[in-house]
Amino acid sequence: MRILLLALISATFLACAPHKKITKTVGKELETDFFKNQFTGFFVYNPKTGDTVLNYNGEKYFTPASNTKIFTLYTAHTLLPENLPVLAYTTNDNGVYIKGLGNPASLHSYLKDSTLVNFLKNQENIHLVYNNFEDDPQGPGWSWGDFDTYYAPERSPLPIYGNVLTIAKSDSIYTAPKYFKDSVAPIHYKHRRALHKNQFYASLSKNDTIEVPFLTNGNTVKGILENLLNKKIQLTDSFPSGEKQIIYGIKADSVYKRMMHVSDNFIAEQLLVLSSSMLSDTLSSGKAREYILKNELAGITQNPRWVDGSGLSRYNLFTPQSMVFTLHKLYEEIPTEKLFDFFPTGGETGTLKNYFKGNPKPYVHAKTGTLSNNYCLSGYLETKSGEILIFSFMNNHYRGGSTEVKKHMTPILEWIRDNY
User: What is the CATH number of the domain that holds 408?
Assistant: First the structure.
């Protein structure tokens, strides 16, 4: 009995020893002068043992930036089918009635889903319902100064072309969609679009290409589709009762990967809108957020303030522990190889292509989150001993750029990789 007791004590000590060593070593590094003049949180968890490996301000709230997309990914994974819904429609003697569901892929410059257009090409007497969207085009807390920047397109019920106008110049001006060709002035202006109308400004050199968000509304989408299809479309306020049909488009996984790898804000916002179509006939990203927090993510200790899908808003507040909680849910529900493929890999892909490189192989699969004076990294860390750890490393309110923050994060993550 005494031998057994000693063995149990010894096993407990050996299990705790690495955690104590990591807490002491990493904690000491996080108290150095570099980290003192900013707000840092770092939480590391072992999903196999259920142990907290490190907790440094893990329960404190941070501005997550694009780490918010981890929650969006989980919501979409939970609510959406394997192929993303594109359109709801019904028919009667007056023709076909259509309404968007928020799908971001239709004629997107990268995703290139033509399901919507291929369906409409074969329809006559098309009636477009555009009033099934509760959200504002811009998310709460978005910077108004970003209105003409490629990374802040409007949210809408029937996105098309990624809700951006692509303007390119070779021998002449090219626009996609063509609908806006006569709305582009080839002059230099302080903004690339007028604030309240779809008037664009682009003084381009040869072979230049830019993307500018356009203002979305029913008349604009109607005009784009009419120009594209060469047929008339009628706007209407009511979707007839009766059997509703759903058209499905491209695989969800390809959209999730694009969102996570390049941190695409538009895709993130629209995935939340699209997720809400599984809950209600009225599109509302708020409904999707509320549902997932009250159900699948009900066990979060520190409930987040979650206001958009992308993390563009500084109103968002999440703790490192809540990030790890959701990352753990993803880890339990998605095969590891597939899950890690969704996330940027250090030294190899996406927003981590030039950072956190492995030696000799990759060891970090994580989502970045960057706003001015904020850099966060949350995901999965593979140790040299073969363990997989889930972590969230959040840095807020530093002066200067994120490069120095990454430089100081790197040896900490490498040390955990080598010593756990």
Answer: 3.40.710.10
